[in-house]
Specification:
The chain is of the alpha/beta class. It has a single domain, classed as Rossmann fold, CATH 3.40.50.300. It is about 50% helix and about 5% strand.
Length: about 375
C-alpha cells in the first residue's frame, strides 16, 4: 500500500525565498499555518547545511562544462511526459534530475545518506494519481527544486494557487521586466548546472510540463536544444489533470482553493501553455523537434523510441535498447486509471480547447 503524501516541496527551501513568498502572498490560509511553521523551521535549521552544500557543489563542478544540447521533454501535464521520461532515462548517455535531488536540492551533498533514508521512509512508493513507481533515484522534473531554490518559479502558482503571477511571469513571460527575466534565467541555469554536476556532465534529459510554454526562452539559453513533444486527447488531459490536483497538488496548497477553482485553472493553463507552444514551436530549428502521439506511444513505445532517436540524431546502442525493452516488459501488469469527463464540463472543454483538438487532430465527442 502506498504511503500518503506528507512531505512538502518547500521543506528545506531557501529561507530568504520562503520569506519573500510569504510577504508577496500575505501569509498563508489559517488552515495551513502548521505547514508554514514546519517549512519555516526546516528551512532555518537546514540553512547552514545549504550554504555548505552550495560551496561543495561549486567545488565539485568548478571545472565542469554543461552540455549545450539538452533534450527537453515537453507536453501538458498528464500527457505522457513521465512515461516517456522513464523510458529515455534507461539510456546512460543522459543525465537527469532524481527525486532525491528534487526534494532537497540545497542538501544534496552534505548529509546525503541520512536525508535520503528519511525521505524514502516518508515518501510514497507510487504516485497517487497514476500508480507510477517513484523512488529517490528515479527521474523527475526540475521545476520542483527551482521552487525551493528561488522565488522565480512557476510552481509557486501551484502552492499559492490564487496567485497566477508566477505562472504568468515564468511560463508565459507576461508582465515580466528584463531584470526579472534575467533572474529567472540565472536561477534556471543554476538548477541545470547542479543537475549536470550530480550527473557528471552527461547530456541533460529534462522533463517539465512548464517548459511547454517556454520554447522561445529555452532556445535563447540553448540554441542547439532538442525537443520531444508528447500530446494526448484533451478530454483525457482534463480528467487526468484534475485527478492529479485532487490527489497530489492540493496536498501542497497554502491557500484555500475550491473544486471549481481547480477546474478553471486547468482550463486556463491548457489554453495558455498549449497556445504558446503552438505559436512558438516554429522557432525550433529543423531536426531538433519531434512530436509523439501518446496513444501511439503507449501501444508501441520502442517503435516511438526509434523514431525519436532517428529524428533527433541520437545514438541508440544495443545495450540501451535492451534496457528500454526490459523496462517496458516490466510494465505489462500495469493498469492505467480510467477517467471520465463530467458531462457539464464537456461543453466548456470543447469551447475553450477547440484549438487543441484541431491542432492535434482529435475529434470532439
Amino acid at each position: 500500500m502506498s504511503k500518503r503524501i506528507i512531505v512538502h516541496q518547500y521543506w528545506f527551501c531557501n529561507p530568504f525565498s520562503w520569506i519573500k513568498l510569504l510577504i508577496d502572498n500575505k501569509g498563508v490560509h489559517y488552515k495551513f499555518i502548521w505547514k508554514a511553521v514546519l517549512i519555516t523551521l526546516l528551512s532555518l535549521v537546514s540553512y547552514p547545511i545549504q550554504i555548505l552544500n552550495s560551496l561543495a557543489l561549486w567545488w565539485k563542478g568548478r571545472h565542469l562544462k554543461m552540455n549545450d544540447e539538452p533534450v527537453f521533454i515537453v507536453g501538458h501535464w498528464r500527457g505522457g511526459t513521465t512515461f516517456l521520461h522513464y523510458i529515455l532515462a534507461q539510456d546512460e548517455q543522459f543525465g537527469y534530475l532524481t527525486y532525491y535531488h528534487a526534494f532537497v536540492p540545497n542538501l544534496a551533498i552534505i548529509g546525503d545518506k541520512l536525508v535520503k533514508k528519511i525521505l524514502a521512509r516518508v515518501t510514497p512508493d507510487k504516485r497517487p494519481q497514476d500508480d507510477i513507481r517513484i523512488g529517490m533515484d528515479l527521474p523527475t522534473e526540475e521545476e520542483n527544486p527551482l521552487s525551493t531554490y528561488s522565488s522565480h518559479s512557476a510552481s509557486h502558482s501551484f502552492f499559492f494557487p490564487k496567485n497566477e503571477r508566477y505562472f504568468q511571469k515564468y511560463v508565459l513571460f507576461e508582465g515580466i521586466n528584463d531584470k526579472e527575466k534575467s533572474k529567472w534565467q540565472k536561477a534556471y541555469l543554476s538548477i541545470l548546472n547542479r543537475i549536470s554536476v550530480h550527473q557528471k556532465g552527461r547530456q541533460l534529459l529534462i522533463k517539465n510540463p512548464h517548459n511547454t510554454g517556454r520554447v522561445r526562452e529555452l532556445l535563447e539559453l540553448f540554441p542547439r536544444a532538442k525537443f520531444i513533444h508528447i500530446y494526448r486527447n484533451p478530454y483525457e488531459i482534463f480528467s487526468s489533470t484534475f485527478r492529479m490536483y485532487d490527489m497530489v497538488v492540493k496536498t501542497q496548497f497554502l491557500q484555500e482553493y475550491s473544486k471549481d477553482d481547480i477546474e478553471q485553472k486547468i482550463l486556463y493553463y491548457y489554453n495558455s501553455v498549449m497556445g504558446r507552444y503552438f505559436k512558438d514551436k516554429s522557432l525550433i530549428p529543423d531536426g531538433q523537434l519531434i512530436e509523439i502521439k501518446f496513444e501511439e506511444f503507449e501501444k508501441d513505445p520502442l517503435s516511438s523510441m526509434h523514431r525519436i532517436y532517428k529524428q533527433l540524431n541520437l545514438d541508440m546502442t544495443d545495450a540501451t535498447l535492451s534496457r528500454m525493452r526490459s523496462y517496458v516488459e516490466g510494465l505489462k501488469d500495469y493498469s492505467k486509471n480510467v477517467h471520465e469527463v463530467p458531462d457539464q464540463l464537456k461543453a466548456q472543454i470543447e469551447a475553450d480547447w477547440a484549438f487543441g483538438f484541431r491542432e492535434l487532430g482529435y475529434q470532439m465527442n
